[in-house]
Amino acid sequence: MPHTVAALFDDEAQAEFAVHALRSARFVSARTQVRRAQPAQMPDIGATALRGLEIGYLVGTAAGAVLGVIAAGLIPRTHVFLHGGVLVPLILAIAFGLAGGLTGMLLSAWASRDRGVLYEREVKSSPYMVTVVTDPERTEYARKILISKGAIETSRLESRPARRSGRRALG
Q1: Angle in degrees, CA 49, 54, 60, rounded to 5
Q2: Reduced to 3 DSSP states, what percent helix, strand and coil does the chain have, rounded to the nearest 5?
Q3: Is the pLDDT of residue 142 over 50?
Q4: CA distance linking residue 116 with residue 110, whole number of Å
Q5: Rounded distance between C-alpha atoms, residue 126 and residue 41, angstroms
Q6: What is the pTM of this model?
Q7: CA–CA separation, 95 vs 88, rounded Å?
Q8: Beta-carbon count within 10 A of 142 CB
């Protein structure tokens, strides 16, 4: 079963030099390649903050209205905690809506910022990857060649077995 060895490089020249070294060590050309990492998409922090504002505002408004109705005693056979009639649920709905919206916006912007830093690090990390598919006996040799040519990191990946088609015979 063939194994895949992958290595990360900082620049294209090092990666191409490593591929050339692998090919000169008689690794099959069709199974050796350089891939450039695609730039990661930065999350839209503004849209995420707006979504948090909307959700927080709706939840806060609903909670404020429910608490206002209960506090004003508008439900039959309940005790009046605040005098003011219909204005109490309205005022509490507005206050809780504003507080919920601000809280939702700040929490979602904070979470997006952390994801943004993660994506920024990913983009700045090693953009070139060299892969070679080889026999299990030669994986360590390929890894040593890649490290000697300046690979930052290497890893050995086991290839998945090929799927067989057809029916199994029951016996």
Answers
A1: 120
A2: 55, 15, 30
A3: yes
A4: 10
A5: 16
A6: 0.45
A7: 11
A8: 27
User: What are the contacts of 57-61 at 24+ separation with CB within 8 A?
Assistant: 57/97, 57/98, 57/100, 57/101, 57/104, 58/97, 58/100, 59/100, 59/104, 60/96, 60/97, 60/98, 60/99, 60/100, 60/101, 60/103, 60/104, 61/93, 61/94, 61/96, 61/97, 61/100
Q: Kindly report which listed range (11-20, 52-61, 121-130) carries the lowest average pLDDT score.
A: 121-130
CATH topology of domain 3-37+126-158: Alpha-Beta Plaits (3.30.70)
Tokens of 7: 């290595």
Greater pLDDT, 159 or 142: 142
**Tokens at 16, concatenated:** 């191409």
- Alpha carbon dihedral 35, 39, 40, 42, in 10-degree steps, equals 180
